[in-house]
Design brief:
Layout (H helix, E strand, L loop, with lengths): L2 E4 L2 E4 H17 L3 E2 L5 H7 L9 E7 L4 E8 L2 H10 L7 H8 L10 H11 E7 L3 H15 L12
Antiparallel strand pairs: 1-2, 3-6, 4-5, 4-6
Length: about 160
């Protein structure tokens, strides 16, 4: 059994695996923040950090119908949320762009700008700190599968 060390604590895959349900409960019970109100300062305040980067996992939900859409992870939540959710170019605005491709569900979203405005009005974010990159990766896949976001917005396809 392979183990690695984090702050002088030995962590195995089994330890990570056993903690997944508890982490998922923590994520889905975390407070929701409307995307339009999230700033770097808000994220620092919410997660009790004065310093950046804040490493963690986030969940995007449509708060008008409580549909969970996307589970993301980052070494720097403030930057990731800021870029993905505020950008207007296809390369950066991955979620907004995806919305514009789902014509059956979102026929009124023609441009990435339209999708971003729709997200500002309808989507919220929940987030938790997960400082270890291996745990973040494993947890992101677990949460996406358990919450059903893997079908549309989360994709772990290899290129």
């Amino acid at each position: 059994m392979k183990k690695y060390e984090l702050d002088n604590v030995v962590i195995s895959f089994e330890n990570i695996y056993e903690g997944l349900p508890k982490r998922l409960d923590k994520l889905i019970s975390a407070p929701k923040y409307e995307i339009k109100s999230l700033t770097e300062g808000t994220i620092k305040k919410v997660l009790g950090e004065d310093n950046l980067p804040i490493e963690g996992v986030f969940l995007i939900t449509n708060h008008t119908n409580n549909q969970m859409l996307y589970v993301g992870r980052s070494r720097n939540l403030a930057t990731r949320i800021g870029v993905d959710l505020r950008a207007v170019t296809r390369e950066q605005a991955t979620i907004s762009y995806k919305l514009t491709t789902l014509k059956d569900e979102y026929p009124h979203l023609i441009s990435i700008r339209d999708a971003r405005e729709y997200m500002y009005k309808n989507y919220s974010v929940q987030m938790i700190k997960v400082p270890n990159e291996n745990e973040r990766a494993i947890f992101q896949i677990y949460a996406a599968m358990k919450l059903g976001t893997i079908n549309v917005f989360n994709s772990f396809r290899e290129t």
